[in-house]
């Protein structure tokens, strides 16, 4: 009888931990996007002019493919 209530309590704890972890993951992704964009912008700024075009074309193509495939 007590094992049943213990398993229910464990299930509720598991669901709460899952929701908290999902929220933390989303917040981490949101906060890391500007950092990644700043890194890419600073890396491209040091490239010579003839390489910037190809680097930005590659990055733009990757972004478009990820949007089309929805990241899959």
Q: How would you describe this protein?
A:
With 72 residues, the protein is mostly helical. Helices cover 90% and strands 0% of the residues. The longest helix has 44 residues, at 2-45. It is elongated, with a radius of gyration of 22 Å. The model has no long low-confidence stretch (mean pLDDT 85).
Short description:
Helices cover 90% and strands 0% of the residues.
Topology:
Blueprint: H1 2-45, H2 49-69
- The biggest beta sheet, please? none
> What is the average of the pLDDT values?
85
Q: Please count the helical segments.
A: 2
Q: Low-confidence spans: pLDDT under 50, at least 5 residues?
A: none
Q: In percent terms, what proportion of residues is strand?
A: under 5%
How much helicity do the residues have?
Answer: over 70%
List keywords for this structure.
single chain, about 70 residues, mainly alpha, elongated
């Amino acid at each position: 009888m007590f094992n049943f209530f213990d398993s229910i309590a464990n299930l509720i704890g598991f669901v709460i931990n899952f929701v908290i972890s999902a929220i933390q993951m989303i917040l981490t992704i949101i906060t890391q996007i500007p950092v990644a964009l700043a890194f890419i912008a600073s890396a491209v700024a040091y490239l010579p002019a003839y390489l910037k075009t190809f680097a930005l074309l590659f990055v733009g193509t990757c972004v478009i493919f990820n949007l089309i495939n929805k990241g899959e």
